[in-house]
Write a structure and sequence with these properties.
The chain is 17% helix and 45% strand. By secondary structure, the chain is of the alpha+beta class. The chain folds into two domains: 125 residues, Roll (2,3-Dihydroxybiphenyl 1,2-Dioxygenase, domain 1); 118 residues, 2,3-Dihydroxybiphenyl 1,2-Dioxygenase, domain 1, CATH 3.10.180. Strands 3-4-5-2-6-9-8-7 form an eight-stranded mixed β-sheet. The protein has an eight-stranded mixed β-sheet with strand order 12-13-14-11-15-18-17-16, with helices on one face. A two-stranded antiparallel ribbon has the order 1-10. A hairpin with a 2-residue loop joins strand 4 and strand 5. The longest helix has 12 residues.
Length: 255
């Protein structure tokens, strides 16, 4: 079991959360799908729920702000040492600060950024909440990737912001890179090609590890999810892309 108690290094995707209109329905869906143990953090946080495995945090589920046009979404949060400094630097590099840095009680400090190509991600400066306490296990986060329609521009933005080294692993038909920090892979960057539907915006995708992708997709469908990409074999495992019961997109992968 891959566990962590210390803050994640700056530039590492360290947390994900799903924001949905119906919080209780979201809790019911994901606890049934992944077997997550759910902890309500209380009314002062709007019922934000921490999903746990073996008593360690793996993801969050929250209610989208009422009367907002925010779509149901999973957000990838990248760990930082200073959210204010990184948000300011992101703006200098052409990003847009959607949510200015703010304290989340004693848990940490966060901001929400759109890169210059439109892909949205969060920043997380940890305090008492360090991020995911389990990764790379069935039911836990295992990968995050930015998919964009301007691959070169996005690559420059993220390398300038976080100091990533990029290794190209795609080919002429599919541009894709692995993002490295200190020699370790921490995420991916891919191109949404012309063959992808025009209504798919640039985005960060969260991958949750599962024991069996086909069984997970079947169970998700029974719970009201839509299959956006059916299970398929890749060099990295068998993966599928789902839209949760309220429309939020995520991927599952079995190694």
């Amino acid at each position: 079991m891959t566990t962590r108690d210390e803050p994640w290094p700056q530039g590492t995707p360290c947390w994900i959360d799903g924001m949905v209109p119906d919080l209780q329905a979201g809790r019911d869906f994901y606890s049934a799908l992944f077997g997550w143990e759910l902890v309500d953090t209380g009314p002062e946080s709007g019922g934000y729920t921490i999903a746990q495995m073996s008593g360690r945090p793996v993801a969050g589920i929250g209610a989208a702000p009422p009367d907002s046009d925010m779509p149901p979404v999973w957000t990838t949060y990248i760990g930082v040492d200073d959210a204010d400094a990184v948000a300011a630097r992101a703006g200098e590099l052409g990003g847009q600060v959607f949510m200015e840095p703010m304290d989340v009680m004693e848990q940490g400090r966060m901001a929400v950024i759109a890169d210059p190509t439109g892909a949205v991600f969060g920043l997380w400066q940890p305090r008492s909440h360090r991020g995911a306490g389990i990764v790379n296990e069935p039911g836990a986060l295992t990968w995050n990737e930015c998919m964009t329609r301007d691959y070169a521009r996005a690559g420059k933005f993220y390398t300038d912001l976080f100091g990533y080294n990029i290794e190209e692993v795609g080919d002429e038909s599919f541009k894709y890179s692995v993002l490295y920090l200190d020699g370790s892979p921490v995420g991916g960057l891919g191109e949404l090609g012309d063959d992808m539907p025009a209504d798919i915006p640039p985005h960060w995708m969260s991958y949750i590890a599962v024991a069996d992708a086909d069984d997970t997709v079947k169970r998700a469908s029974e719970l009201g999810a839509q299959v956006r990409m059916p299970p398929m074999d890749t060099p990295y495992g068998r993966l599928a892309v789902l839209a949760g019961a309220q429309g939020e997109m995520f991927a599952v992968i079995a190694g």
